Amino acid sequence: MSIDKDTAARVAKLARIRVEPDQLDALAGEFNTILGFIEQLNEVDVDGVEPMVSVTPQRLKRREDVVTDGNQPDKVLANAPDAREGFFAVPKVVE
After folding, report:
1. Residues 31 and 19: beta-carbon distance below 8 Å
2. Quick check: 30 pLDDT over 80?
């Protein structure tokens, strides 16, 4: 697959990237280089290889999933601009 100047312009537009018209040829060349690397990866035989998440096999530490209030209401409300009676106080928006 080869990317031409028009396709590079369309990709740039979809990605909301402003690319000057004189730079479209260089961008198309970079896209083609990336696609070349992807084609090289497609040549690797990965049959029987399990997908991995990390290079070191380790299990995540797990805890019991229990709903709590966090036991830190004072710390939670410390950054609130206005807190009353243990709750966030906000201005009334509906009359």
Report:
1. no
2. yes
